[in-house]
Design brief:
The protein is mainly β and 127 residues long. The protein is built from no helices and nine strands.
Length: 127
């Protein structure tokens, strides 16, 4: 894998303004660089969706690929909901492939009956 300068923003990480993301370039996720696979090698693709990812898997979050570094059960005192109203009970930390930046995202885990897993007794590292 090689990093090249983003052609959309010319390496600045900035592009046209919008109220939600400011001037962030979506071609490179604001990094100014893009990952390019060497000639003849298959394009890099996620190995698992975020909902089923395990440590070491490659996931895609907001059009950016990353390697999962840890998964932890969590309790949120605000009823474990994101701003968009979705519930979550795990935080997934990953390292972006384009720039090595540590990031995190959240996911919900459900039991075999499709019920949201309440986590008071499970806080800590997921297996």
């Amino acid at each position: 894998m090689a990093n090249i300068t983003c052609g959309r923003c010319n390496g600045t990480g900035k592009h046209s303004f919008n109220l939600m993301h400011g001037t962030m370039c979506f071609g490179c996720q604001g990094t100014g660089k893009k990952i390019v696979t060497p000639k003849g090698q298959k394009k890099i693709a996620p190995t698992a969706p975020v909902s089923n990812a395990k440590i070491g898997d490659v996931i895609e979050v907001n059009k950016s690929l990353g390697t999962v570094t840890s998964i932890r059960w969590i309790i949120d005192t605000n009823a474990a909901t994101r701003d968009d109203g979705t519930e979550y009970n795990q935080v997934v930390r990953f390292t972006r492939l384009v720039d090595g930046r540590a990031m995190k995202t959240w996911r919900a885990v459900y039991d075999n009956n499709g019920l949201f897993v309440v986590t008071p007794d499970m806080v800590g590292t997921a297996e």
